[in-house]
């Protein structure tokens, strides 16, 4: 069917989902790549809006895949797509899908566990980039504590580029309870600190570990650092004193992946 008015109730549903005010468990996916990743991961797609100008989506067979998956497809003019999409330059396709947050048990289901714990990271782009790095480096799951940007928000989903659909991601977890749960499952807590921690190349990341990352600027609170089994610092050349939290996560996860795959010796 075709929608031609920006005041259509469906447009309101998309806008509410983008603002986090929609029905519980409803995600907004923006862009062809993310919609295809959702299809590949068997994520339930409810409604998909396609701009009438996006003829390539038909040529690529995406519309046929969406139809076979049972999604409702609506055609909209460019002006309506601009109202439905949260990005400044809409890609031509947006979709409403069902969220699939994981439980803590699912995050540590694979062994040895390699878990990323996000505490107070408020930039959704950083959250998405970290989930992408976790997926690429073989992490078993991600835990987002209270006060962290929603990993299932549209901006974090775009940053993760589909990795959120492949990796168990638990959300809105109290930090202290998450750490207690991990310790109860014999997962060592590794806190990232800017200085005076074990240099990253010297840290043993081969066993079940959870990498604890703090928010932009403030870092980890003292009580969470104190609860950690080990503190790790990334050596840097002066005058640089810190990295962006997403870069920090990628470096640590890459080191963990190398150690686990046997490509580098552990000192």
Describe this structure in words.
With about 270 residues, the protein is an alpha/beta fold. About 35% of the residues lie in helices and about 20% in strands. The protein contains 12 helices and 11 strands. The chain has a 7-stranded parallel β-sheet with strand order 7-6-5-10-8-11-9. A 4-stranded mixed β-sheet has the order 1-4-2-3, with helices on both faces. The termini are far apart.
Based on the model shown, name its key terms.
267 residues, seven-stranded parallel sheet, four-stranded mixed sheet
Topology:
Blueprint: H1 9-18, E1 26-30, H2 32-40, E2 45-51, H3 55-59, H4 62-68, E3 72-76, H5 78-84, E4 93-98, H6 104-107, E5 114-119, H7 124-136, E6 141-145, H8 154-160, H9 163-166, E7 169-173, H10 175-184, E8 188-192, E9 198-199, E10 209-214, H11 222-227, E11 230-233, H12 245-261
Parallel strand pairs: 2-3, 5-6, 5-10, 6-7, 8-10, 8-11, 9-11
Antiparallel strand pairs: 1-4, 2-4
The stretches of 5 or more residues where confidence is low (pLDDT under 50) are none
Q: Order of strands across the biggest sheet? A: 7-6-5-10-8-11-9
Query: Major sheet: size, sense and barrel closure?
Result: 7 strands, parallel
Helix content: 25-40%
Which class of secondary structure composition applies to the elements?
alpha/beta
Distance between the termini: 63 Å
Instruction: State the helix count.
Output: 12
Indicate the proportion of strand residues. 15-25%
Overall, the morphology is elongated
From N to C, what is the helix and strand string? Answer: HEHEHHEHEHEHEHHEHEEEHEH
| Average pLDDT taken over every residue | 93
| Backbone CA Rg | 20 Å
- The total count of strands amounts to 11
